[in-house]
Amino acid sequence: MKARVTVTLKAGVLDPQGKAIVGALDSLDFKGVQSVRQGKVFDIVLDDLPQDKAKKQLTEMCEQLLANTVIENYQIELL
Amino acid sequence: MKARVTVTLKAGVLDPQGKAIVGALDSLDFKGVQSVRQGKVFDIVLDDLPQDKAKKQLTEMCEQLLANTVIENYQIELL
């Protein structure tokens, strides 16, 4: 079974990477870009499991490895 | 207006980062993980534009900066 985990910075957490991208976009003449915030996406293939078990396992994966829960949020989608 | 750009590796492109994550998950006793592929997600805030113009601009941003179109695919969502 397939799942997608999206990990993004929490609001208020500074994103120097995003700032650098805004600068680069500006130097490429893209006007009107107010902000960019970069995150990570993980496409995961798991052995088949009941949905609730899969969600629980994926949540544990996020809590332990995929996300730094101090500064990041995560979102789990079963595909 | 807000948009989300998701950039993922094309099929067949090796993902050493993803492989390392599979190994780490295994060492954390997560069983049944067949594969992990890591990508990037950009949450962009733009000045208001007609949707078609915004999509065109975002496509250009991907082509020029946000994605390496030789090895990556990108997906644009207007939120």
UniProtKB/TrEMBL annotation, chains A, B:
Subunit structure: Part of the FGAM synthase complex composed of 1 PurL, 1 PurQ and 2 PurS subunits.
Name the UniProt record assigns to this protein: Phosphoribosylformylglycinamidine synthase subunit PurS
GO process annotations (BP): 'de novo' IMP biosynthetic process
Task performed by this protein: Part of the phosphoribosylformylglycinamidine synthase complex involved in the purines biosynthetic pathway. Catalyzes the ATP-dependent conversion of formylglycinamide ribonucleotide (FGAR) and glutamine to yield formylglycinamidine ribonucleotide (FGAM) and glutamate. The FGAM synthase complex is composed of three subunits. PurQ produces an ammonia molecule by converting glutamine to glutamate. PurL transfers the ammonia molecule to FGAR to form FGAM in an ATP-dependent manner.
GO MF entry, a single one: phosphoribosylformylglycinamidine synthase activity
Pathway involvement of the protein, from the record: Purine metabolism; IMP biosynthesis via de novo pathway; 5-amino-1-(5-phospho-D-ribosyl)imidazole from N(2)-formyl-N(1)-(5-phospho-D-ribosyl)glycinamide: step 1/2
Subcellular location as annotated: Cytoplasm
Catalysed reactions listed for this entry: N(2)-formyl-N(1)-(5-phospho-beta-D-ribosyl)glycinamide + L-glutamine + ATP + H2O = 2-formamido-N(1)-(5-O-phospho-beta-D-ribosyl)acetamidine + L-glutamate + ADP + phosphate + H(+)
InterPro entries per the UniProt record, alphabetical: PurS, PurS-like_sf
Record key words, sorted: ATP-binding, Cytoplasm, Ligase, Nucleotide-binding, Purine biosynthesis
Chief location category: cytoplasm
UniProt enzyme class: ligase
Family of the protein in this entry: Belongs to the PurS family.
